[in-house]
Design brief:
By secondary structure, the protein is an alpha+beta fold. The chain is 44% helix and 18% strand. The chain is built from twelve helices and ten strands. Strands 7-3-10-9-8 form a five-stranded antiparallel β-sheet, with helices on both faces. It has a three-stranded antiparallel β-sheet with strand order 4-5-6. A hairpin with a 4-residue loop joins β5 and β6. The longest helix is centred in the C-terminal third of the chain and has 18 residues, at 327-344. It is elongated.
């Protein structure tokens, strides 16, 4: 049974908090002599050792070597995150950097998500990740903007307000009015259908000659709907940025764990399954070490929060890094990024 914070004495809570916060900052075990010098504890090294022994017996601390200090276990970190951590307030600069990273709203959804992972990676010094399950959302509007004689930009607006762009090849000799005709037909006849449903109806109506489209406009409409299925193998969308942040040459002890984590991140389907758990959450989720099978060997943690469109969860954004994360600082970073994405994909 995991102990709870109220079950710990005030003295034990103070010592435990100092050990966890020191370990998160330095990555090194903390000794009783070091703790005895801290202002506010007012305890001898011997008294602190006794408390540390009790905390170790509860499974909250461990000692890497007999003569070394103590460091929190994954169970101890869970107790700290759930019951003792006080999250930091984001600075105006951090908020501005997150908002700038996922702007403009009209950018393709993949660019918004990639921007979110990039800025999270930079601010947290971890790997930023984003996950969006495969969906076939109803379309609201499809329009075309010419990019020259042979190409056009297909601009798709989903019912949820998400905007995506793709480049499509035009049939030879297609005049500008065929782009308008294709767009008008899709918006009048196919709005409210999913992309697969719209493509099927278009093929059916063209085949039965019920579509009020000339041949060139029909080809453009079909290509405009089909271009999104071309990247179906890449969905669900999983974007990982900032893996280099996980490698710290100055910390040789963590290099092997970082190598294992980088190998874990190559297993994209497994990473997606970990993040998928956060889809059902109403708020930020923290997974520590062996709580996820994938990251148990590398001793890594995941902090992830769902983002929404029209009140419905449509994806997850977060960070992955060593268990020695500054949870109090990173949780609000992830939360604010999820809130920002939710505003932009309405």
């Amino acid at each position: 049974m995991q102990p709870t914070v109220p079950e710990l004495s005030e003295r034990a809570r103070a010592i435990f908090r100092n050990i966890v916060e020191s370990y998160i900052e330095t990555g090194a075990p903390v000794g009783s002599r070091t703790l005895s010098k801290l202002a506010g504890l007012g305890l001898s090294a011997a008294s602190i050792r006794n408390v540390m022994q009790d905390l170790e017996e509860l499974g909250l601390l461990s000692s890497p070597h007999t003569s070394a200090g103590r460091m929190p276990t994954e169970l101890g970190l869970r107790l700290f995150v759930d019951g003792m951590m006080q999250t930091h307030e984001l600075s105006a600069d951090e908020q501005a950097r997150i908002e700038a990273g996922v702007w403009p709203r009209t950018a393709p959804i993949e660019e918004l998500l990639a921007g979110a992972t990039q800025v999270l990676s930079g601010l947290s010094h971890c790997a930023g990740v984003v996950f969006a399950p495969k969906t076939d959302a109803p379309l609201r509007q499809l329009s075309f903007a010419p990019l020259g004689e042979s190409r056009a930009l297909a601009i798709l607006v989903h019912e949820g307000g998400t905007v995506e762009n793709r480049v499509v090849e035009l049939p030879p000799g297609a005049p500008p009015e065929t782009l308008i005709a294709a767009s008008n037909y899709v918006n009048a006849r196919l709005a409210g259908l999913t992309l697969s449903e719209a493509a099927e109806r278009l093929r059916s109506e063209v085949s039965a000659r019920r579509a009020e489209l000339d041949a060139l406009s029909a080809i453009i409409a079909e290509r405009g709907l089909a271009v999104w299925s071309a990247d179906g193998d890449q969905r669900p969308i999983l974007i990982v940025r900032g893996q280099a942040n996980l490698l710290d040459p100055a910390n040789v002890a963590d290099l092997e764990r970082a190598r294992l984590l980088l190998e874990d991140l190559e297993e994209r389907e497994d990473v997606a399954r970990v993040l998928e758990v956060a889809l059902a959450s109403q708020a930020c989720k923290v997974f520590i070490g062996a709580e996820t099978r994938l990251f148990s060997l590398s001793g890594s943690s995941v902090i992830a929060a769902p983002y929404r469109a029209n009140g419905r969860v449509v994806g997850v954004v977060g960070v992955i890094g060593p268990v020695r994360l500054n949870y109090a600082r990173i949780v609000p970073l992830v939360d604010f990024t999820a809130i920002t994405l939710s505003r932009l994909v309405q």
